[in-house]
């Protein structure tokens, strides 16, 4: 999770439709293999790994982010959460990279680094923004290097040494809205004044957007065509 967006939303991150929907997609993806030990790379506040400790069977989480000022330890639901700037190795059975690898120039090297830090059989869940034709001031503001197709992301993960198990697009239900908003900003000179598209909304609008995306979760595994995000599940052989 991007620290810039967390600073924009504050405590609203926990109830914002976008993050709630992405969490629902994550929960659906791990349903058949609920993790016990979680390594959350580029974790920010640890929103996703904390949710797995609260709502799933996770026992502990290790959150890694070079943006942390200091190492620290917390607990959530009575379970330990460690925040570290770097690590040497992990015994995690699930690695999360939620909207992380688009922030680095060498995405293969970053994934391969963490493949080397975990044991054989460890699962990976990786999400990235979809399609370069959706590039906008939002990406510039968040310091992205690129957006991906499903084929491009699976190629990166395989090059890093992972076996891809499943992949799909997500947020197809709001794609027309995103296209419209970004086209409007582009016409208004948004690339000259880049800013995040992330906003808070009224409770009614927030609930509606979440409900629409939540319905999509049930069929997302069949979506190989379009969306604003790509989600892939893989494992270390």
TrEMBL record:
Family annotation (Gene3D superfamilies): Vaccinia Virus protein VP39
Domain of life of the source: Bacteria
Molecular-function annotations in GO: methyltransferase activity
Coiled-coil segments: none
One Pfam match: Methyltransf_23
Keywords per UniProt: Methyltransferase, Transferase
InterPro entries tied to this protein: SAM-dependent_MTases_sf (IPR029063)
Keyword Methyltransferase attributed: yes
GO biological process, one term: methylation
Name of this chain's protein: Methyltransferase
Organism, scientific name: Sandarakinorhabdus fusca
